[in-house]
Amino acid sequence: MPSTRALSPAIAAAGLVGGYAVARWTKKRPLGGVVLAVAGGVAAREWQQAAGTKAAVGLTAGYVAAFAGSHPLAKKIGAWPAVFSVAGAMAGAAYAVTRNAG
C-alpha cells in the first residue's frame, strides 16, 4: 500500500481538478464544491497524520488559496490550464512538506 506521503499530493491535486471537472460538466457548482471539500478533508487528515497539525493547517490554507487563486489565473491563461497549474503547485507543496515527515 502506498504511504500517506505518496497519496496526499495526489489527493489534493485530484480534489482541485475533480472539483472543477464536476462543476463544469454537471453545471452544478455546489456539487463541484462537495468534491473539492471532501478531497480537501481527506488530504488534511493525511497531512496531519504525516506531518502534524501545523503542517496540515498550512497545507489546508494552501489548498484553499489554490482554489481561490485559480479563478483570477483562469482569466489570464484559461480555465483548465489554471486548474492544472494550481493543482500541480498544491501537489508540489504537499510533497515538499510531507516527504521527510514521519
Q: How does this structure look, described?
A:
It is a single chain. By secondary structure, this protein is mainly alpha-helical. The protein has four helices and no strands. The longest helix is centred in the middle third of the chain and has 25 residues, at 53-77.
Secondary-structure topology with pairs:
Blueprint: H1 4-26, H2 29-51, H3 53-77, H4 79-98
How many H/I helices? 4
Poorly predicted ranges: none
Question: Strand percentage, roughly?
Answer: under 5%
Question: What's the SSE pattern?
Answer: HHHH
The overall strand count is: 0
Which key features would you list for this structure?
102 residues, mainly alpha, 0% strand
Summarize the structure in short.
The protein is mainly alpha-helical and 102 residues long. The protein is 89% helix and 0% strand. 34% of the residues are buried.
